[in-house]
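Consider this record:
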Amino acid sequence: MSKAKALLDLMMYINAKRHFTAKEVADEFNISIRTAHRYLMDLSEMGVPLYTEPGRGGGYRILNNRMLPPIILDEDEAFAIFFAFQSLRYYPSMPFDINMNSVSRKLYASLPADAQNKVDRLGSVLAFWTHKTSTPSPFLKEIIEAATENRILEMVYASKADNTVREIVPLGLYAYNGFWYMPAFDPDAHETRLFRADRIVSLKVTQDIAVPPVNLPSWLDNQTAQAPKNPVRLYVELTREGIRQCRSQPWLEPYIVTTDEEYGYVETGIDQSELEFVSSYFFQLGTSAKVLEPREIADRIGIMAKELYHHYL
């Protein structure tokens, strides 16, 4: 076995063991203890974070910031990872201390010259754009770790009227349109609520544990499949421009029906609590949409139009 192959196998071994002795390494790879020490020193010089523990029962320990062994990627796999990082550029906070620029530089440097040129060309014509926010979310790592252990968090949350103190169990985090969102189970209210991570003023991880009734993937699936609690029929006539605008809205796009090249309609159900939001959306479409049902939305849009008219008199 070549020395390079031996060092790669040893790196994988110590990443799995984390705590070991030179004798264990020697026995595992059928080498002398002296050679084991030399190989471990070689890995340390390569940047593997090894710590020596002297005395009886000592040995070697790999630190928490473990270095992963080399991974061989084909060109398309490298491109996929490189551009996946681009989709996170607009998030000011990340759940862990991820230095995307450092990872991208390492990945880019490992590519051959022709592949680097291809990345440069693709970078000028391909982007994953989302709304860029300047408000940080400093507690993402604590939320993720608490979610994996079902820990109860004590948090101060900036609500619409005032800061409130809450005890919750986070399901996890998801990113949407430049923001991080935390669905969390409220043990006192026995319900799952949604919070914006950047609105958390302070956070304390407790030793108390509570198991949420649902996990994050199931909760997200329920949000798209959940029927309205207080359903209201929504029927809206659309012009060609109205169809184009509504197709960019995930909550409307599946329910658009085109009658010809110039007209169509939306027919679906919404919750009673969403009337104000839906009114505001179709108000900004102007004459590209006409709400026929429910009457409450049509009336609300009429009031908003009058208020806007008088505002500019």
